[in-house]
Amino acid sequence: MARKLAAGNWKMNGNKAAISEATKLAEMFPVPKVDVLLCPPLTILAPMADALSDAKIAVGAQDCHAKPSGAHTGDVSAPMLVDAGAQYVILGHSERRTDHGETDQSVAEKTQAAFTAGLSPIVCIGETLEEREQGEALNVVGRQLAGSLPDASDLDKLVIAYEPVWAIGTGKIPTLEQIAEVHDFMRTTLLERFGDGAAAIPLLYGGSVKPGNAAEIFATSNVDGALVGGASLKADDFGGIISALEAA
Ligand code: 13P
């Protein structure tokens, strides 16, 4: 059985004042029954990690470079994220694939860097609306899954997030049957490639998860949690999603 994880991706939102939402969440969930993670923008990662040092809520980043150090202006490495207090890093989010031209190959290199540094990578995959309408969703997910993971993956650390691009920030979600189809396919594919250890890889769903739809999503086959964007910015909203996962 995979552990359950409620992960918040703040994207390019939040400043120092917003750390109070994280500490409020920690007060609401002093001992959460599931793993809880916040991935704030890099500028507040270290102060958020400090503010949550006594809390049972982990902090993560939204990207890292594939190299541990060097002449890469503006980039940050996986060991630097560990030094700042991160335990996780989101990799290959569709916004980075689109905005920064990230490929399966570059995501696989970053994922390897995360493992080497001792971070848990949350590797994101998912089809566009056009690909879904062409009946290509499983092919795209299969191709991204194959290409974005290194062979030497640390199965105890790896997390996968299925985020259909058309469901992100749109209020639209796939049917529960569609989510189950993709998540079952991901589990089967991972078991075939990595063996029995892949049964414990948390498979998150992401895209317009809200307190109101979380319970039915978490009741869906092979959904072990969520990667939440907009609804993770406020402790009350994210708290509703965490509660739904605790009850699932
Ligand atoms: P929303 O929850 O805002 O749709 O964003 C999902 C997402 O991209 C999380 O990484």
Please provide a written account of the structure.
It is globular, with a radius of gyration of 17 Å. The mean pLDDT is 98. By secondary structure, the chain is an alpha/beta fold. Helix content is 41%, strand content 15%. The chain contains 10 helices and 8 strands. The structure holds 1,3-dihydroxyacetonephosphate (13P). 1,3-dihydroxyacetonephosphate is lined by residues 9, 93, 163, 168-169, 206-209, 227-231.
User: Could you name the CATH topology?
Assistant: TIM Barrel
Strand content: 5-15%
Number of helices: 10
Structural class: alpha/beta
Please list the strands of the largest sheet in the order they lie side by side: 1-2-3-4-5-6-7-8
Mean pLDDT score: 98
* Poorly predicted residue ranges: none
Radius of gyration: 17 Å
Q: Biggest sheet, open or closed, and with what strands and sense?
A: 8 strands, parallel, barrel
Topology of this protein?
Layout: E1 5-9, H1 19-28, E2 35-39, H2 45-51, E3 58-61, H3 78-84, E4 88-91, H4 94-99, H5 104-117, E5 120-125, H6 129-133, H7 137-148, E6 159-162, H8 176-194, E7 203-206, H9 211-218, E8 225-228, H10 235-247
Parallel strand pairs: 1-2, 1-8, 2-3, 3-4, 4-5, 5-6, 6-7, 7-8
Bound molecules: 1,3-dihydroxyacetonephosphate.
TL;DR?
The chain has helices at residues 19-28, 45-51, 78-84, 94-99, 104-117, 129-133, 137-148, 176-194, 211-218, 235-247; strands at residues 5-9, 35-39, 58-61, 88-91, 120-125, 159-162, 203-206, 225-228.
